[in-house]
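SEQUENCE-TO-STRUCTURE ENTRY
===========================
What this section holds: a protein sequence and its matching fold, both as plain text.
Question of interest: how does this chain fold, as expressed in backbone structure tokens?
***
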Amino acid sequence: MKNASLLVFVLFGALAAGPAEREANEKLVLQVRAAETAFAGTMASRDHASFAAHIADEALFFSKQGVLRGKAAVVAGWKPFFEGPKPPFSWAPERVEVLDSGTLALSSGPVRDPEGKQIGTFNSIWRREADGRWKVVFDKGCPPCNCPPAARP
């Protein structure tokens, strides 16, 4: 009987933790969405220095020229996109998922040309740093997909 009581206690404890964990994850999703939106805003505002502040020191960005390895390479490789008065493209998060551990996140969404036509899809992996800020560690774009959106489980 004592073991059965312990089992019931553990099961109820696990069930009670579910909504709190989901709420914590939803807060992290909002943090990453805000970080991605601010990151995209650096392109719109032509603020290369703020762009650099979102990049992790050991980041890898995939580009047409190959892999940009490390923050300095990413920042230098993206500098031409910040030259000129108007941004050559824009992006916005459409989907954000965060590990339950709260350490890594995925953000993805459309990349659009200046006229608003989708020209690609971005996929970024964010890592929560020791100070709590989110920084991009991986970024890879791909051609747009004309597929129907996947249903969320």
Remarks:
- Helices lie at 2-44, 48-53, 71-78.
- The first strand starts at residue 55 and ends at 63.
- Residues 2-142 form a domain with the Nuclear Transport Factor 2; Chain: A, fold (CATH 3.10.450.50).
- The chain has a mean pLDDT of 89.
